[in-house]
Amino acid sequence: MPIDPTAPYDPDNIFARILRGEIPCKKVYEDEYALAFHDINPQAPLHVLVIPKGPYVSWEDFSAQASDADIVGFVRAVGQVARDAGLVEPGYRLLANVGQHGHQEVAHLHVHIFGGRQFGAMLPR
Ligand code: 5GP
């Protein structure tokens, strides 16, 4: 069920619980700004989620409310995860779903990194 990207942050959302260590994840990267882990239901040979450590529902409030340091730190972390996974030379895809039309299901900002195969056209037509 898609979430409302304008709703207040829910501290009990699943990714908040992963950040607090209440739910396990297959971690691939962590720094001061971000945590990256394998998606539980991978849709590509490599499917990693990168989430900011701050309480942001979606790209909407992150881009509007986060500090410059948090934005820089998060964007650099996404690039680092892709680099560490060896995805730069073959290429990869980033995706951030937002709200109803974007079909965002977890109410904590996450960027999907997909890699390991040729993806073809950007969206189904
Ligand atoms: P969205 O549709 O919100 O962009 O994507 C949410 C993603 O989170 C989905 O790809 C889903 O498989 C993943 N996901 C949902 N719950 C969990 C979980 O508990 N652990 C992990 N690792 N991924 C999850």
Report on this model:
By secondary structure, the chain is α+β, with helices and mostly antiparallel strands. The chain has one domain (14-115): HIT family, subunit A. It has helices at residues 14-19, 59-65, 68-84, 99-102; strands at residues 27-30, 34-38, 46-52, 93-95, 111-115. The chain has a five-stranded antiparallel β-sheet, covered by helices on one side. A hairpin with a 3-residue loop joins strand 1 and strand 2 (34-38). The chain is globular. It starts with 13 loop residues before the first helix and ends in a 10-residue tail after the last strand. The structure holds guanosine-5'-monophosphate. Guanosine-5'-monophosphate (5GP) binds at residues 14, 23, 25, 37-41, 49, 97, 103-106.
Topology of this structure?
Layout: H1 14-19, E1 27-30, E2 34-38, E3 46-52, H2 59-65, H3 68-84, E4 93-95, H4 99-102, E5 111-115
Antiparallel strand pairs: 1-2, 2-3, 3-5, 4-5
The structure holds guanosine-5'-monophosphate (5GP).
Guanosine-5'-monophosphate binds at residues 14, 23, 25, 37-41, 49, 97, 103-106.
